[in-house]
Design goal:
With about 375 residues, the chain is an all-alpha fold. The chain has 13 helices and two strands; from the N terminus they run H-H-H-H-H-H-H-H-H-H-H-H-E-E-H. The chain has a two-stranded antiparallel sheet. The longest helix is centred in the middle third of the chain and has 30 residues, at about 190-220. The chain starts with a helix and ends with a helix.
Length: about 375
Amino acid sequence: MINRSLILTYFYLLIYITLSSGVILYNKWVLSPKYFNFPFPITLTMIHMGFSGAVAFFLIRVFKVVSPVKMTFRIYASCVIPISAFFASSLWFGNTAYLHISVAFIQMLKALMPVATFTVAVLCGTDKLRWDVFLNMVLVSVGVVVSSYGEIHFNVIGTVYQVTGIFAEALRLVLTQVLLQKKGLTLNPITSLYYIAPCSFVFLFVPWYFLEQPGMEVSQIQFNMWIFFSNAVCALLLNFSIFLVIGRTGAVTVRVAGVLKDWILIALSTLIFPESTITGLNIIGYGIALCGVVLYNYLKVKESSQNIPERITKDWVFEKKSSDVYRTDGSSIGDDDNEVVTDEEAPLVPPSSSSRLSHIGRTQMQQSSRNV
């Protein structure tokens, strides 16, 4: 008998991998001077933010799909604004890297995301310095260095942009945990776009005015409305698809799917963009980095499974909030864990813990109540 639920889960994973790979390849094609030739990454990012913010506004204010959260000016100024600033920076630097380095090499550099997140978390005091995790981070860093050494078309500017974008994304993730989650404020993908996308648009406007606006006045640029509209729609759907997948599986599954997506994306980029050649040293270095990433994910899963009793109460508290993320089966997901999806086009707020762990916790509590 065919398991329809399992088929649907794999279908959602396929959608996530397709959209994530498609958005990255699409952005590269639009920005690259060799193809569509629109070398204005800040402008492209502003189009994404403006479109996403407008869609979120209509979904909340016009169609009443979800209700806005209770957002005071103090919370907005102290939480949303700094998070939006780092989110805008991560997208700006990440998209600018497409102008200088290949998609394949960008994916290899993105293996540094756990290193950046762990470093920032330790510096901000949200995580403790553990030697097992530290050694994993060293392994990842060594792998990325080896991969960079083997890069044929190595570009310092593009590498700096990408690494800077990675650390900006890490700061955003940690700030989201420290500022929003500590205040008990939970945002679903629609409300996160509603509050953060317009603010990110404003932050992007400042560098756009000084860096890209003068060049756009004097250069002959081509603007195809359908290309930019479809590009923005793909980016928006990707943000929703990540939460859809997590609702059926969990953040850990998305991490594994992300690794598979990276390998697929590296292979596709070498076929679509001939300049994205990879060497044996690239593969060896990326393999070493992935070993560190896999070990890091294993430690996080092990740590999460050991902390299930402490997480049960949190799950019940967060599930009572109207602003939680709701799954298709009617249950909700709280933001009580550090599990995040570290993708370049990651959602504005960190996804929740694995839904399976939450289900295990609720099951244990139900069994305990029956035994009383």
